[in-house]
Specification:
This is Kinase. By secondary structure, the protein is an alpha+beta fold. 41% of the residues lie in helices and 16% in strands. The protein folds into five domains: 224 residues, Hypothetical protein af1432 (Orthogonal Bundle); 126 residues, 2-Layer Sandwich (Beta Polymerase, domain 2), CATH 3.30.460.10; 121 residues, Roll (Ubiquitin-like (UB roll)); 89 residues, ACT domain (Alpha-Beta Plaits), CATH 3.30.70.260; 56 residues, no CATH class. Strands 1, 2, 3, 4, 5 and 6 form a six-stranded mixed beta sheet that branches. It has a five-stranded antiparallel beta sheet with strand order 12-20-21-19-22, with helices on one face. A four-stranded mixed beta sheet has the order 14-16-15-17, with helices on one face.
Length: 712
């Protein structure tokens, strides 16, 4: 069975971007081929073969000048003359069919001109210089962008490197990928002439690369037909079962009545009574969509085989329709989605809702304007030339090209780092497999597009590239967060950067890196520093490494002279000592408890140890501070993990003239490290300055007084 024959929907059904052509039959390519080889027409009229393209083009662009298309066709036909496709048709039928697909979608003249010529440089004696001289630099650039690299020069790397070249070209002009998608669609339609293994190989690349690109560019018409063609080739048995489901539903609808038609009539009646002008049509699901719904819901009923589309004139009318449907019919509130207020990253705008029928079936309803529908079907093709002067002017009702500055910018950034072809090819497929994009915001108001599931690590590398090695933490929506934190759409992210120019990433970051750019940057650093096996931290750094077996203990410093307790106890003749669980220092509010040996132990009032003393009914003794001198205190520093942190902290403490009695560093947890220091201060009044100095160390986000673990 040919790939073209297995296509379940004719282009007239699939390509509904313009209802004016919905009843137009499929063009007979053999007849087109015969017309193409009859020779050029007289100069005052169009060749018959290009007439269909011009007709479709003028349906979208009534004022278009067809002369450039005539000249492009004549060059393409004469250049390809004598070449045949594997199907036996003249080769010129391929660029004609590709151009017709784009014309039906509403592509502008420059794109159609390049489409007619897209194989001339690759397969004939025509040069890029000739194309540029005859048709201008824009057409030359588009033709060059879709021209394959030679297998003679690149071998097995020719295909992935060709895609890399096309993606880079698309970064400058998105029309390059529009032509490639139409080219692949026509090739998939006629793939049956290839041997089975080649069909499967092409179908897999289409599934992994071209279909996701069509989705990202919003060209749903091409995406859905490509999905069905791939489905028929890679899963023929499931495709056949799905085809039988669709045929069976059509038979039932003809015999018992069509559920969706009945619901559409109800919708028309509701809107007519409300005085809302709208066009209500039924959109049958394509084969892959039916297959997905069947896997999700099990047995299908009539309403599951399509959706109702309501087309109106203005944005406000969309919400008016929604209100009427939710008032007069039974809405399924959980199915409501507003992609008008919050458009998808690929230009898509629509209201989605669903209404329940008396028989229990649920009919899905899409509500959009005619302009939204055109963009939803044709995506970037509907934008014309998004780089022309004034194309970004919001007054024309069209939004900006979705490839700037979102997913394509990220892809172009990381592909530069993926020098190895295999890494590029595998990473490209993995990147394109990520279905959704989120938008996060920076404190300065800037926006950053990331794939769904991205973490703060990904945000850091997206913003700073390899400078993100110096990232030590983040704030998400104003609160401190670990770098592993997964971001949600609409989050505000502030990345905290260290000052160490020689900063090093942690191997643990790879577990939280979702984007290729982050992973490639981290892996490249780790590959060039193989002597740092744990986390990529410097070998001389005494900071703990992930997976360590316990707290790292820095040996006690030489014992300082005993601290002067300076405690005046309201009980004459009674000695006092400072409790080591909370190490009180002036001017802490304190209390005392009588313990064995007639000694009073002094705690901070809020100390958990003091609370236990009270609950044990220990005798509480009034105490107050006397003259102070040296004192001992325990501080806890909370920080993000980074190389050399312990060394920097101990240096900051030493510069304050404070002796370290002991220090303990716990194993890191989610990139956070807890340092506990017992310190000998020359004067209790110096404590606030010491704590400020410790907080000023890069990576430290909090310093506080500690309680001994036994007191918890």
């Amino acid at each position: 069975m040919s790939a073209e024959a297995t296509n379940p929907l004719t282009p007239a059904t699939v390509t509904t971007a313009s209802h004016r052509r919905k009843n137009r039959p499929r063009i007979d390519l053999r007849r087109l081929g015969r017309a193409a080889v009859l020779g050029p027409a007289a100069r005052d009229r169009l060749p018959d073969a290009i007439g269909h393209v011009v007709e479709a083009h003028r349906a979208h662009h009534p004022d278009a000048d067809p002369d450039i298309l005539r000249r492009a066709y004549l060059l393409a036909e004469s250049s390809h003359r004598g070449q045949m496709r594997k199907s036996g048709e003249p080769y010129i039928t391929h660029p004609l069919a590709v151009t017709l697909i784009l014309a039906e979608l509403g592509a502008e003249t420059t794109t159609l001109t390049a489409s007619l010529l897209h194989d001339t440089v690759e397969d004939t004696e025509v040069t890029l210089e000739q194309v540029g001289a005859e048709f201008g630099e824009e057409v030359r650039y588009l033709v060059d962008g879709v021209t394959k690299l030679e297998k003679v020069d690149y071998g097995a790397a020719a295909e992935p490197e060709t895609f890399r070249k096309m993606l880079v070209a698309t970064g400058n002009d998105v029309r390059v990928m529009s032509i490639k998608l139409a080219d692949r669609l026509h090739n998939m339609r006629t793939l049956s002439v290839m041997r089975r293994e080649k069909q499967e190989r092409i179908a897999k690349v289409t599934r992994d690369v071209l279909i996701p690109l069509a989705e990202r560019l919003g060209v749903q018409v091409l995406k859905t037909e490509l999905e069905d063609l791939v489905f028929a080739i890679l899963h023929p048995e499931e495709y056949e079962r799905t085809r039988e489901l669709i045929a069976g539903n059509a038979d039932r609808a003809a015999r018992d009545g069509d559920t969706l038609s009945e619901t559409a009539d109800e919708v028309r009646g509701v809107l007519r009574e409300a005085g809302i002008q709208a066009e209500v049509v039924i959109r049958p699901r394509h084969h892959v969509s039916v297959h997905r719904v069947a896997r999700k819901r099990g047995q299908l009923r009539g309403a599951d085989f399509g959706r109702i589309l309501v087309l109106v004139g203005e944005d406000a009318d969309c919400y008016a329709v929604l209100g009427e449907l939710h008032t007069c019919l039974t809405p399924v509130v959980s199915e409501f989605k507003d992609f008008i207020a919050v458009p998808k990253f690929n230009l898509y705008q629509s209201l989605h809702t669903a209404v329940a029928r008396p028989d229990g079936q649920v009919a899905e309803v899409l509500i959009r304007t005619h302009q939204m529908h055109r963009v939803a079907e044709a995506g970037v093709v509907a934008l014309g030339n998004p780089y022309a002067p004034g194309a970004d002017d919001p007054s024309d009702g069209e939004r900006a090209d979705p490839t700037r500055p979102g997913w394509l910018s990220r892809l172009l950034d990381w592909q530069e780092s993926a020098q190895d072809t295999d890494m590029f090819w595998s990473t490209l497929r993995e990147d394109l497999a990520q279905d959704r994009e989120i938008t996060v915001f920076r404190p300065d108001g800037g926006a950053l597009g990331l794939p769904e599931g991205a973490s703060c690590v990904d945000a850091a590398y997206a913003l700073y590239g390899e400078d993100a090695h110096a990232c030590i933490g983040a704030r998400v929506n104003g609160r401190l967060a670990t770098l592993s934190t997964v971001l949600k759409d609409g989050d505000t992210v502030q990345l905290l950067m260290g000052q160490d120019v020689a900063s090093e990433p942690s191997r643990e970051w790879l577990e939280h890196a979702h984007t290729p750019g982050a992973r490639i940057a981290i892996q490249r650093w780790l590959a060039t520093h193989p002597s740092d096996p744990g986390t990529g931290t410097a070998a001389e750094d005494p900071a703990p490494r992930p997976g360590g077996g316990g707290a790292r203990h820095v040996p006690d410093a030489p014992a300082p002279r005993p601290a002067s307790e300076s405690v005046v106890v309201d009980r004459p003749g009674t000695g006092a000592r400072l409790a080591r669980c909370c190490t009180p220092v002036p001017p802490d509010e304190i209390t005392g408890f009588l313990v064995r040996g007639g000694v009073v132990t002094v705690h901070r009032v809020e100390c958990a140890g003091a609370a236990r003393m009270r609950s044990a009914e220990r005798a509480e003794v009034g105490v107050r501070w006397g003259d102070t001198g040296e004192c001992r205190v325990t501080l806890v520093a909370e920080s993000f993990q980074r190389p050399h942190l312990l060394a920097d902290l101990t240096e900051a403490i030493a510069l304050e003239g404070v002796a370290i009695v002991s220090a303990t560093v716990e194993p890191p947890t989610q990139q956070r490290v807890r340092h506990t220091y017992t310190l000998q201060l020359p004067d209790a009044a110096h404590l606030p300055a010491l704590m400020r100095a410790m907080r000023d160390v890069a990576g430290v986000y909090d310093v506080g007084r500690a309680q001994h673990p036994a007191a918890q």
